[in-house]
Amino acid sequence: MIIGVLALQGDFREHASMVRSLGVQVRLVRLPEEADFVDGLIIPGGESTTMGKLMATYKVDRAIIDRFNAGRMAIYGTCAGMIVLARDIEGSQEQPHLGLLDVTVQRNAFGRQKESSEEDLDVEGLDTPLHALFIRAPVIIRTGPSVNILARVARGPVYVQQGRLLASSFHPELGSDTRVHEHFLRLAEQSSNQEV
Ligand code: GLN
Questions:
Q1: pTM surpassing 0.85?
Q2: Which structural domain, as residue segments, surrounds residue 67?
Q3: What CATH number does the domain containing 51 carry?
Q4: Listed residue (147, 158, 137, 164) closest to 45, CA to CA
Q5: Is 79 a catalytic residue?
């Protein structure tokens, strides 16, 4: 199994080292052809407007959409990555994004003055709470019928799954708890095992 990490902008190095620490091979993805052969792709945190523009410039956006729609890979977006994955971005619909995840997100939902926060989350499928770090994080304000909410805070959902799409407002790659990445690797494994 190979996990791609989109490496145009943002905290891709932290995701890459967490995946490697779980014994899985990583490929940094910038160009369309680098998305070939990956079973899962992580879209990191960073700045979603910049990342979306770079994805369009490098034409890697189309390659990601095609490979995902062909059932060949799973995708996990954190923070800015969640925004890039979303179908709708409140007040910012014109910024380039992939539109694969049937949710509406609100950027910087926790207020600019309170730029980062930490919270222990109850997560569906996990026995003990997950310590989550939010940095100028988005919140989900609408979920489509096929979206499963895995965790929420008072403001709304912050961790969701739609089939082989996973998205979190928070940054597990900046901590030491690997359970979110392990969950994602299981989704990627399903793509890897699939007969074509
Ligand atoms: N505020 C950023 C955005 O809207 C996301 C922040 C992050 O990824 N930590 O793109």
A1: yes
A2: 2-193
A3: 3.40.50.880
A4: 137
A5: yes
